Every structure is written in C-alpha cells, then in structure tokens.
Amino acid sequence: MCKQDFCKDHFTHAAHKCPCAFQKDVKVPVCPLCNIPIPIKKGQVPDVVVGDHMDRDCGYHPVKKKEKIFTYRCSKEGCKKKEMLQMVCAQCHGNFCIQHRHPLDHSCRHRSCPTIKAG
Fold first, then answer.
1. Among 21-30, 41-50, 108-117, the least confident range
2. 20 to 30 A from 8, CA-CA: which of 2, 26, 92, 93?
C-alpha cells in the first residue's frame, strides 16, 4: 500500500522490497487434513504453524473416522453379506449380494413375468 508507481519489473511488493507488503500480501495457510484456515502471526513460518496444528489441534482423525466401504446389506433372509455397490432387483426392489442378485436366487415373490433358471 505504498501507492508508488513502478515499472513492470518492480511493481510487485517483493521486487521493490516494499515495507508495506505485509498489509497487502496476506496469505492464510489451510490445513491439508481438516481444511481449516490456520492463523499465523507476523514472522512465523507457515509450514511450522500448520505442522503444529496437525500435531496438536487438528480435528481430523482418520482412525476415528473410518468410512465403511461395504454398506449395502443383502435382503435375502439369512444372508449377512454386504456389497460395495447396490444391486437392486428390478421386480421386488430388494437389495442383494452378488450371490443372490438374480430373482430365482433370492426367491423373488414379485415376479412380473416368468423367469427360467439357466442350466
């Protein structure tokens, strides 16, 4: 904010060593784990401050926030398998595992047309 005019080589704050650069060129580092902006004071090294935040104050805990991959449970009575993707029966709209995905394999009760078991 020195409000002086400079040539194309010296118009940036760093190029002309502007004493007012800290007022204009403020960057706030963001934690790569929790995506929270980390405030830094003048003279502090951003990498060190973010590292301290990650060690002490960061709210991101990958062990505690373990996301389940196999979330779609089979609707076949007695089956406890879970799949990563939904496999919905077009006739009864139940969700089934790979083994029970075909209407004949899960004893589908809502058949709109007769199905013949292959082989």
1. 108-117
2. 26
Does the domain made of 67-118 have the CATH classification 3.90.550.10? no
AA letter at 38: I
27-45 confidence digits (pLDDT tens): 789 998 888 899 888 788 8
d(CA 105, CA 15): 73
- Tell me which residue has tokens 């590292």: 51
Tell me the CA distances in angstroms from 90 to 5, 20, 101, 112, 117, one per residue in order. 71, 68, 10, 10, 16
Q: Contact, 104 vs 96, CB < 8 A?
A: no
Residue partners of 8: CB distance under 8 A and separation at least 6? none
Give the amino acid at 108: C
Q: Which of 84, 61, 83 is nearest to 74 (CA)?
A: 83
19, HSE (Cβ side, Cα atoms, 13 Å): 0
Gap between the Cα atoms of 43 and 52, Å rounded: 16
The SS3 call for residue 51 is: helix
